[in-house]
Specification:
Elements: H1 3-29, H2 31-69, H3 87-93, E1 97-98, H4 101-106, H5 108-111, E2 115-127, E3 132-140, E4 147-148, E5 156-160, E6 167-173, H6 176-179, E7 190-197, E8 209-218, E9 223-225
Helix pairs in contact: 1-2
């Protein structure tokens, strides 16, 4: 037996393991499509051969599902069982701390200029001539698991706490689509802002201010609070 053949045989268990892990991941991300493909493979090849074919067919399902839905299946609004950050969002969040209103109140000067991340529901906002918005945010806590309308992952919505923990102001440069159109930012929208704590408080509200370097926005219909537990699944 050649060295190449021996090496290939040694790699087979590793490759098989990784392919099976990918199959499980595909089922979580693209459950309904994956189920159809698995059933079709079993009908075509029978139960004995299906156990060899299914893991590899899952790779094709994952590629197609990801290409169609984008954002690793979660889409722009994060339709996943757990919070799914966008690529640029992950980059912006490197080194950022979760905004802690209690600790900021106690050690404000230590937080000034620090990069922070916070989720908040828009209570009010104004936009100046340059397009910069001053958002009054009701600070909420992101939940570990999103609520879903049913067992399908694409029915899940980003979920934050029903209760408010503080109010802050955030200065944000809104996108054109957030100023006009069906998905524009309004009172009641959810945003995640990542930026630095300003030295000066807001002159109108007296709140701490975050000068935003990155933000993500969810219109009313694309997120829920924990109040939805009464009629949604976790």
């Amino acid at each position: 037996m050649s060295k190449t053949t021996t090496h290939a045989l040694q790699l087979r268990p590793i490759i098989s393991f990784r392919v099976n892990v990918m199959a499980q991941y595909t089922h979580r991300r693209c459950g309904s499509v994956h189920k159809v493909v698995v059933n079709a493979v079993r009908l075509r090849y029978g139960p004995n051969m299906a156990r060899f074919v299914v893991p590899y067919s899952s790779l094709a399902v994952l590629l197609v599902c990801t290409a169609i839905s984008g954002c690793a299946g979660a889409g722009p609004w994060g339709a996943a069982r757990e919070y799914a950050p966008l690529g640029a969002e992950e980059d912006a969040a490197v080194g950022a701390k979760d905004f802690d209103p209690v600790m900021v109140g106690r050690f404000f000067q230590q937080w000034v200029g620090k990069s922070v991340s916070v989720f908040g529901v828009v209570d009010d906002y104004g936009v100046d001539a340059s397009g910069e918005a001053n958002l009054l945010l009701s600070v909420r806590v992101l939940q570990d698991r999103n609520l879903c309308e049913d067992a399908a992952e694409d029915t899940c919505k980003v979920t934050v706490s029903e209760n408010e923990f503080a109010t802050i102001n955030a200065r944000v440069n809104l996108l054109p689509s957030e100023l006009n159109g069906p998905d524009r930012l309004t009172r009641g929208s959810l945003v995640r802002v990542i930026g630095k704590v300003a030295q000066a408080t807001d002159p109108k509200s007296g709140n701490y201010v975050i000068n935003t370097v990155y933000h993500r926005h969810w219109p009313l219909q694309h997120f829920v609070t924990t109040a939805a537990r009464s009629y949604m699944l976790r």
